[in-house]
Write a structure and sequence with these properties.
Low-confidence stretches: none
Strand content: 15-25%
Order of helices and strands: EHHHEEHEHEHEE
Helix content: 25-40%
Oligomer: single chain
CATH topology: Aminopeptidase
Number of domains: 1
Largest sheet: 7 strands, mixed
Number of helices: 6
Number of strands: 7
Radius of gyration: 16 Å
CATH class: Alpha Beta
Structural class: alpha+beta
Mean pLDDT: 94
Distance between the termini: 29 Å
Shape: globular
Strand order of the largest sheet: 1-2-3-4-5-7-6
CATH superfamily: Gcn5-related N-acetyltransferase (GNAT)
Length: about 200
């Protein structure tokens, strides 16, 4: 397997929708249905979206994602095996993520930012590709692009867990440690993992 990483562009919007429609949670992962769009939504927008769920929550979330993709509001990278999308990493400038009750980026991280920061808020890997280095490849590309883009740091927000769980969408602490991140601070059960560039 040769993993190729591509940043999300307007041309990849159909790939994005197909990945979240059919691959990301195809094993019954409880994080689905998700289209990784809540990190860029304010609380009122999240409430409005939830009020529209009716009998089709997935369709409603997908509709919001389609609009956000068209507006260029979702940030991140896809991993491919050949032409097949196998993984997703939601990553972008910390300042582009909206503060909401879900705390994808903890307030303490925002208050203690050390310059222009690239934030990694989630991963979604196709079940059959879990444990095959996809998240590592995605994170390495985020770091390389952040360095090239003049960022001061890259951060991830890892859950503190007794044991690893397959549906930990934030990425495990060891993933960040392997890539040279260290703990910047901790808030409750979340570690702010930072790599200075």
């Amino acid at each position: 397997m040769k993993i190729t990483i591509k940043p999300l562009t307007a041309e990849l919007a159909p790939v994005y929708l197909d990945f979240f429609d059919n691959k990301a949670f195809s094993d019954g992962n409880p994080n689905g249905p998700c289209y990784c769009n809540v990190p860029i939504m304010d609380n009122a927008s999240v409430r409005q979206m939830a009020s529209e769920f009716g009998s089709d929550a997935k369709g409603t979330i997908r509709g919001y994602a389609e609009k956000q993709l068209a507006e260029g509001k979702i940030f991140g990278y896809f991993a491919f095996d050949g032409n097949t999308a196998i993984g997703w990493c939601n990553a972008g400038n910390m300042d582009d993520y909206i503060i909401n009750d879900y705390q994808f980026i903890p307030d303490i991280a925002r208050r203690n930012a050390c310059g222009k920061t690239m934030s990694v808020v989630c991963f979604a890997i196709a079940p059959e590709y879990c444990g095959k280095g996809v998240a590592t490849a995605l994170l390495e590309r985020v770091i390389a692009d952040a360095r090239a883009g003049g960022y001061a740091a890259v951060e991830g927000y890892a859950n503190v867990l007794e044991e690893p769980v397959y549906n930990d969408f934030k990425g495990p602490v060891r993933l960040y440690e392997k890539a040279g991140f260290s703990q910047a601070t901790r808030v409750s059960d979340v570690l702010v993992m930072r790599k200075m560039l």
